[in-house]
């Protein structure tokens, strides 16, 4: 009875395979998979994992690898076998990598040959591809998969580790049911259609690319292209050739595309849907993109790992007059804004965003205290500071931990960053508070230039746009900003570096 009523992550692909078995599901490099072929490969991979490594349902399997078709198949195979998939940032090394593998209790690490040497001793390792005995090579010989344990909606399917921009990462425990609810929310809020031709260029270990786009697009039966990385030239080629008409990227990547010398001259009219998220998009950058591609439909996606990760969306017909908003809650999410005591605040007042949703994680893996702190008063506390307007639109002001206390007055770093982005010489900007005897925290801008500008010039420019107490007290010029692979700027590192 349980299996009859449950909807699982791998079942999303099985249903598409039964509807359109011969339609192309996925392209990567020189390989292409039909929906039937992809579904059969998932079953074979599940059999290989369970028969070849002595695993049992509930065991954790880490994926520490680059983007590939094998990466996706491994995730779906874990889902089918009742294993718990642990996606790991392929840029992690040393103690950071060891922490996640140890904290999750992973029994097996699926990796690529060039990364295998980084895996700490003591872990069973299997290559995903490009090696003898790799999981991908095993798919040449189809094998049936049967299991006494059929995963149910309430079973864990993935540990999504948070970005760790302010503290050690925590493993958000995601069930099949939570992610399937999130896939439906993504399909409806983002207008995902079987006729779309999305390109997936961000790391698949990251929840946004995998769970907001790739899996929901597989659910509707679209033709998907996976790239190794967001290479501007490759993306432009796919758009011009008609193989891509939909792209998700964080603001840092969109900034890079907009600043690319070919952006102004390539024929990008075939790009119909542009999705951005993972961090705050500077309004001036969005305005430049819309001016260059006026027919392109922009969607702002906002959320966090703990909610699958999509929580709110600002659609293309909602941008006018609210370019800085992240939209309204998606289908299965209820959200409100509260003060430090958990009380609702009036519309137009800044406070913390809290959620109720079947998309939410079940807590943090092996962290009962942090779980209790996040889930209190019947709501999940996001740590995001936002304002809700009378029409239900949310505007993120900052992370609660990133708000700057300057002279006893709270300053939102985003507002200062938006002011700096209006200067033509500013390519990127991040604003942090640094310890100061007079101001408690001094508003400090860390800036990457694309033209000529002095510290005094940028401070004066900000003062023209902002109240003087919000303008930077100091500007530091750098060649690049530290960020994780999902595009989030690591302000913790900036505070540590320049304190």
Automatic annotation (TrEMBL):
It comes from the Bacteria. Residues 14-365 form the AMP-dependent synthetase/ligase domain. It holds the Pfam family AMP-binding_C. InterPro entries: AMP-bd_C, AMP-dep_synth/lig_dom, ATP-dep_AMP-bd_enzyme. This is Acyl-CoA synthetase. PANTHER family: LONG-CHAIN-FATTY-ACID--COA LIGASE (PTHR43767), MEDIUM_LONG-CHAIN-FATTY-ACID--COA LIGASE FADD8 (PTHR43767:SF7). It comes from Streptomyces poriferorum. Residues 415-488 form the AMP-binding enzyme C-terminal domain.
